[in-house]
Amino acid sequence: MLQNQQPAPLFRSFNQHNQIVSLADYAGDKNVVLYFYPKDDTPGCTIEANDFTALAGEFAALDTVVIGVSKDSCDSHCAFIDKYGLKVDLLADTSGEVCELYDVWREREKNGVKSMAVLRSTFIIDK
What is the mean pLDDT of residues 70-97? Predict the structure, then answer.
């Protein structure tokens, strides 16, 4: 897991519009709240996305963009955004590369069964 004050790993991934987004796009211009979540349109992930959406104006006033990352597809992200009127960009990390860069692809145990999953995590990246 990244430590406080450690440089954020650079990434490039497709957003919900199938456009490449890179951390370098924001360097020197915007702070970035980068949050990782397990799956679109699930209860906890929906609450989290709605909470970030409710605060979108406050983040923007602080020169900050909010970007969510999951292993879902661009199409899944579009449906999720449309269903709830979300005001955040969502990256489709279908290969898991960004999750691995940020060390959030972890083994978990649920009901005695071990599996790999995205560890819900949020990183605040200074411009």
Answer: 97
For 35, 108, 121, 127, the CA distances from 97, given in Å and listed in that order, are 15, 19, 15, 22
Contacts of 27 (CB under 8 A, 6+ apart): 127
Answer left, alpha or beta for residue 85, where phi above 0 means left and psi between -120 and 50 means alpha. Answer: left
* Domain boundary assignment for the chain: 12-125
What φ, ψ does residue 74 adopt, rounded to 5°? -60, -40
CATH superfamily, domain 12-125, is: Glutaredoxin (3.40.30.10)
Q: Is the pLDDT of residue 14 over 90?
A: yes
Catalytic positions are 45
pLDDT at 5: 86
Reduce the DSSP state of residue 22 to 3 states and report it.
Answer: strand
> HSE (CB half, 13 Å, CA atoms) of 33?
19
Beta strands at 12-15 and 31-36: parallel, antiparallel or unpaired? unpaired
| Burial tier of 20 (Cβ tally within 10 Å: 0-12, 13-18, 19+) | exposed
pTM comes to: 0.94
